[in-house]
Amino acid sequence: MELASYADRAVHLVNTADPYRRRDDLTTVEDARALLSKQGACGRLTNADVQELRTLRDRLREVFDAADAGSQQAAVDVLNELLELYPIRPAISNHDDCDWHLHLVEGVPTTSAAYAAKACMGLAVQATELGLDRLGVCQAAPCRDVFIDTSTNRSRRYCSERCATRANVAAYRARRKEAALATAGAAAA
User: Fold this and answer.
1) What InterPro entries does this protein map onto (predicted)?
2) Alpha helices in the chain (DSSP H)
């Protein structure tokens, strides 16, 4: 069972919205279908599923924000509420000519709830195995995308290489500007 891929569902769902840039990529059934299909989930979706995913997205954002702020108990409380709301159980499978392995089988009636159950369980496993401090929010302003830090030295601060590069270039330019101002100030004195 690859629980990291289940945890990625939580990351992908949360990252469909960025309230700071007023971006929302989960407003229609087609948006939900695109999100779920990226993770291998399929099934009939309705507007109710979209609303359920949006609500879950907001709750998962609370988990990442709390963990990022160092409020581990708040993150665990929300995650436990979600695990209770979206129950799941393990089952052994050997599909597609693979050896026997574990899968998470959701005990919920809708496609969106099945996605939610796996996302919450995967996130819970990653948080407990890696540590809640590994749940992060991108430090490159104005990005607020979330990520799970799987680096060996717990050093990840950005959601992507793009954001890391953008932040490093901005810091470099700020240092150059500061040095130029200092040089101009020294020359004027």
Assistant:
1) ABATE (IPR010852), ABATE_dom_sf (IPR023286), Znf_CGNR (IPR021005)
2) 3-14, 29-38, 47-68, 72-85, 111-130, 161-188
The pTM (predicted TM-score) of the whole model is: 0.83
Output the tens digit of pLDDT for each of the chain's 189 residues: 567 788 999 999 999 998 777 889 999 999 999 998 887 666 789 999 999 999 999 999 999 999 999 999 999 999 999 999 998 777 787 776 778 877 766 666 678 888 898 899 999 999 999 999 999 999 998 899 999 998 989 889 999 999 999 988 988 898 988 888 878 777 766
Is residue 154 one of the residues assigned to a domain?
no
Question: Does residue 38 lie within any of the structural domains?
Answer: yes
Residue at 109 is within a domain? yes
- CATH number of 86's domain: 1.10.3300.10
Domains of the chain: total: 1
In a domain, 40, yes or no: yes
Name the residue with tokens 């680096």. 151
Closest C-alpha to 98, from 1, 174, 185: 1
